[in-house]
């Protein structure tokens, strides 16, 4: 079997993963606070025919070796947590994080999830919840009949009840040493992992934590033009690798026809 066939096959598989990643980015171009992904690759083990630095004769060292690569493979798919642009919605339950940090959400199994999607609503108990009904942690309850819901830059939530201002809680944000290590759960939620490190929980707008902007949402950080360019590059790389397979097949066919 020609080495080139297997080498080109690894290239095709790598570019397929690349295109799959780009497709997911483009599918979420309008998803609130979505963070684009990037596929990273590395080369495979080399067959060393002659090691670099090997002696050709006494006192003479060859300037380079002979090493033949075996293709490429997927190394990682990174989440890029560059902040998306702000979308002004004029809806007082819409919140965006300016800077680092994640909202803390209690999932249905009781564990804590993390999100930058600040599209919140009220449930039948007056709790501040996500679109899926998961409450914010710590719990924020808006009293019945309350008006003028306001969230400060530091996350302090105030409302007016019977004309009097009343503080009903303070939203806390979580930061991570390595946010790229967070596990994606879907529904705009992430979970901490050994790679991300434990969450550092604190008040907004303090100690380097981002601040909260009301009446705004964070847009996806997907750049359509960049993704289209990456898609064209990936497509052409896939085509080139497929032509290597075709060329290898033609060479084997010519060999089989030798009499």
Question: What would you note in describing this structure?
Answer:
The protein has two helices and 21 strands. The chain is α+β, with helices and mostly antiparallel strands and 259 residues long. The chain has two domains: 3-81 and 227-256, no CATH class; 86-218, no CATH class. The protein has a four-stranded antiparallel beta sheet, with no helix packed on it. A hairpin with a 5-residue loop joins strand 11 and strand 12 (128-129). Helix 1 (3-27) runs antiparallel to helix 2.
Keywords:
single chain, 259 residues, alpha+beta, three-stranded antiparallel sheet, 2 helices, 22% helix
Summarize, please.
22% of the residues lie in helices and 34% in strands. The protein has helices at residues 3-27, 224-256, and strands at 37-43, 47-50, 55-57, 60-61, 66-68, 72-79, 86-88, 95-98, 102-106, 112-115, 121-122, 128-129, 147-151, 156-161, 164-170, 172-175, 183-186, 189-191, 200-203, 211-214, 216-218. The strands form 9 sheets. It has a 4-stranded antiparallel beta sheet, with no helix packed on it. A 3-stranded antiparallel beta sheet has the order 13-14-15, with no helix packed on it.
């Amino acid at each position: 079997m020609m080495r080139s066939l297997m080498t080109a096959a690894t290239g095709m598989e790598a570019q397929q993963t690349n295109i799959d990643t780009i497709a997911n980015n483009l599918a979420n171009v309008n998803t609130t606070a979505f963070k684009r992904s990037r596929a990273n690759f590395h080369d495979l083990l080399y067959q060393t025919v002659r090691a670099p630095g090997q002696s050709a004769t006494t006192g003479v060292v060859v300037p380079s070796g002979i090493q033949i690569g075996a293709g490429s493979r997927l190394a990682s798919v990174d989440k890029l947590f560059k902040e998306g642009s702000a979308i002004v919605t004029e809806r007082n339950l819409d919140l965006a994080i300016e800077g680092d940090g994640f909202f803390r959400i209690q999932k249905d199994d009781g564990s804590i999830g993390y999100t930058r999607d600040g599209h919140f609503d009220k449930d039948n108990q007056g709790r501040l919840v996500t679109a899926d009904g998961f409450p914010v942690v710590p719990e924020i309850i808006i009293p019945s009949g309350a008006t003028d819901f306001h969230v400060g830059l530091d996350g302090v939530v105030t409302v007016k009840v019977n004309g009097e201002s009343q503080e009903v809680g303070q939203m806390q944000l979580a930061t991570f040493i390595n946010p790229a290590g967070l596990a994606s759960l879907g529904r705009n939620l992430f979970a901490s992992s050994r790679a991300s490190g434990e969450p550092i929980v604190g008040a907004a707008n303090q100690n380097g934590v981002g601040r909260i902007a009301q009446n705004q949402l964070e847009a996806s950080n997907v750049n359509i033009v960049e993704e289209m360019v990456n898609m064209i590059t990936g497509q052409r790389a896939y085509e080139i690798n497929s032509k290597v397979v075709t060329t290898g097949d033609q060479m084997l066919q010519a060999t089989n026809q030798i009499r």
